[in-house]
Amino acid sequence: MTLRSLVILPVLLISLAQALDAPPEQLLRSGRADDARRVLNAAVDKNPSDAQAYNLLARMYFQLEMWDSSLRMAEKAANLEQGNSDYHLWLGRAAGRKAEASNPFTAWSLARKVRAEFERAVALNGENLSARSDLAEYYLEAPGFLGGDKKKAREQGDAVKSKDPALASYIYAKLAEKQGANNAEEQYKNAIKESGNQSRYWIELAHFYRRAGRLAEMDSAIAQAMAGIHEDSAPEYEGAYLFLRTNRNINNAVQMLRRYLSNNTASEDAPAFRAHYLLGELLLKQGDKKGAADQYRSCLALASEFHPAQDALARLSR
């Protein structure tokens, strides 16, 4: 064994020990996908009936954009605990993302599964507001022959209104936008007000402005999101993503992501490995190939199977 190996081995053992001590939910939130996979695979090897571990594996593969694996793990979780609303919600989400990456015939079959699982999640627990929100979005986006129904989407908004007025306004905003109504912007702003200035709804307003081509207002909404309440949201990540997609304020986006990573407050929806990848894309826009490669490597150090980073690094190596 070389001296370098003797130095590295204790570091690896400490890292593994820390991963084994950390709850898997924390590993998911921090974006340590490889560590999460090791811990969760050990859990299901020890107990093949561990539905929670399968659900967390589904969510980990969801982060990695590995839709087949995510769908397979989500099915295991839902089959093991058929009365668990959250497990059916995640099964619907995994099927939905798999559908987006499939050919039309497969996508149509999967779309029906998405609707069935979201409806099942709501039927099992009407208080599962995330399930109601996802079901509303399905009714809004799906064509009629696959169960799309704007009236049913509004009903989901009505159902959550007494418990979460901000979420209801968000659903009404999406409905108004889909119908081409002129009050969509007002409803997005209602969601912000009713939420007590939560960043997530400022980001949704920013997405609305992007879709409407109102990019200066998008910039302003992102700035407001930075000053809002970051309750389980990642406005730095989402704002940087919007800036990258519109090729605007790239320098600002880089700083936002560096701040996000340094604060160590990553969320499951924006895990650290994806933030490193996004930062690499932004640095590439600036012409900093070395910096981009470093970020792709940082991404893969946390999530070695994240194919977008693998492909990006391979392109830079050619």
Structure characteristics:
single chain; 318 residues; mainly alpha; 18 helices
Structural notes for this entry:
This protein has 318 residues and is an all-alpha fold. The chain has helices spanning 3-21, 24-30, 33-46, 51-63, 67-80, 85-100, 104-124, 129-141, 150-160, 165-179, 184-194, 199-212, 215-227, 235-246, 250-263, 272-285, 289-302, 307-317. Helix 3 (33-46) packs antiparallel against helix 4 (51-63) and helix 8 (129-141) packs parallel to helix 10 (165-179). The longest helix has 21 residues, at 104-124. Mean pLDDT is 92; it is low at 1-19.
Describe the global form: globular
Classify the secondary structure makeup into a structural class. mainly alpha
Helix/strand order, N-terminal first: HHHHHHHHHHHHHHHHHH
Mean residue pLDDT: 92
Strand content: under 5%
The major sheet is characterized as: none
Query: Gap between N and C termini, in Å?
Result: 32 Å
Helix coverage percent: over 70%
Low-confidence stretches: 1-19
